[in-house]
Design brief:
Helix 1 packs antiparallel against helix 2. The protein has one domain. The chain has three helices and no strands. 60% of the residues lie in helices and 0% in strands.
Length: 70
């Protein structure tokens, strides 16, 4: 059986492939390399009520960015 073309798969499709083919270490490494972003923002845990109040907007922006990636 030949492997699918990982470059044409969307992130959800690729993730599903990884879950269904857990023994395919090459695919897992390609997935990690493809979707690992060294410029990804890391948000600290909220430290105040103001931080917590801003969380929904930050979360919405994060979800929109993920949808754009595939």
């Amino acid at each position: 059986m030949s492997k699918p073309d990982f470059t044409t798969m969307t992130r959800p499709e690729f993730r599903q492939y990884i879950l269904e083919h857990r023994e395919d270490e090459e695919a897992l490494q390609i997935y990690i390399d493809r979707f690992q972003n060294p410029n990804a923002k890391v948000y600290p845990a909220p430290k105040s009520l103001e931080d917590l109040e801003n969380f929904p907007e930050i979360h919405r922006q994060h979800l929109e960015q993920q949808r754009k990636q595939g």
